């Protein structure tokens, strides 16, 4: 087995060489497949993001150009950070949820949650502990102060200022009231909950082929009917280890 694994690389290289040779002798009649491989972190103009090793970046996320993400933060599935139009910074313990878009020049503080599908325009500043609800839109140059909350689906106008500790909602977003102490605690708890979930996703996405195949095997075992169920029908046990209730 070890010898075969050692031969794998040279055999692949030989196959690639034969393919290139075949394409060369076919000249303009050769078919060349253009491979477009998605990359979570994409350098633009030689500028590449600085992502802390403790972060979770989903495989389908896109961090483009000058993007800095602090420790224990996460960028979820389908999220896009467009650092090709200005540096983007995301502070410690902050989370950019699924399909959110963050434009160039944005600054996101620590322990912030930008909800699923939210859009931050260019040069938006979000203070520590703030929360931008799912589907909300924050216009260019707007400022969301520390501990503020923008309700889901709201539209913050370009250049607007959202006051600290206040709840804003509507289109355009208007101040509704001050957040209660309980609500402020809930915002912090929400950020911590996302952090815990991000650790699980980071571990799952880091699994290699062997681990993934083992998971598939374990799932197949678990899908078998329980011994008691099969026994009650007089059937042979398909899997004596299965204990599904």
UniProtKB/TrEMBL annotation:
* Matching InterPro entries: LbH_gamma_CA-like, Transf_Hexapept/Carb_Anhydrase, Trimer_LpxA-like_sf
Cited Gene3D superfamilies: Hexapeptide repeat proteins
Q: Which PANTHER family does this UniProt record tie to the protein?
A: DYNACTIN SUBUNIT P25, GAMMA CARBONIC ANHYDRASE-LIKE 1, MITOCHONDRIAL-RELATED
Listed name of the protein = Uncharacterized protein
């Amino acid at each position: 087995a070890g010898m075969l694994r050692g031969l794998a690389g040279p055999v692949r290289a030989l196959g690639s060489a034969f393919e290139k040779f075949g394409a060369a002798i076919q000249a303009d009649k050769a078919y060349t497949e253009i491979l477009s491989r998605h990359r979570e972190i994409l350098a633009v103009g030689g500028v590449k993001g600085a992502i802390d090793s403790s972060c979770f970046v989903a495989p389908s996320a896109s961090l483009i150009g000058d993007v800095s993400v602090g420790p224990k933060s996460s960028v979820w599935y389908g999220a896009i950070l467009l650092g090709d139009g200005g540096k983007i910074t995301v502070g410690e313990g902050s989370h950019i949820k699924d399909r959110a878009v963050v434009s160039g020049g944005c600054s996101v503080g620590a322990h912030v949650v930008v909800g699923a599908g939210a859009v931050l325009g260019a040069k938006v500043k979000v203070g520590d502990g703030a929360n931008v609800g799912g589907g909300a839109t924050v216009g260019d140059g707007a400022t969301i102060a520390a501990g503020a909350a923008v309700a889901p689906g709201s539209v913050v106008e370009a250049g607007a200022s959202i006051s600290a500790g206040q709840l804003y909602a509507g289109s355009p977003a208007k101040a509704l009231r001050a957040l209660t102490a309980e609500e402020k605690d809930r915002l912090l708890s929400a950020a911590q909950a996302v952090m815990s979930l991000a650790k699980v996703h980071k571990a799952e996405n880091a699994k290699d082929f062997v681990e993934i195949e083992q998971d598939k095997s374990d799932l197949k075992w678990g899908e078998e009917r329980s011994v008691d169920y099969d026994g009650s029908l007089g059937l042979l046990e398909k899997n004596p280890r299965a204990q599904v209730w």
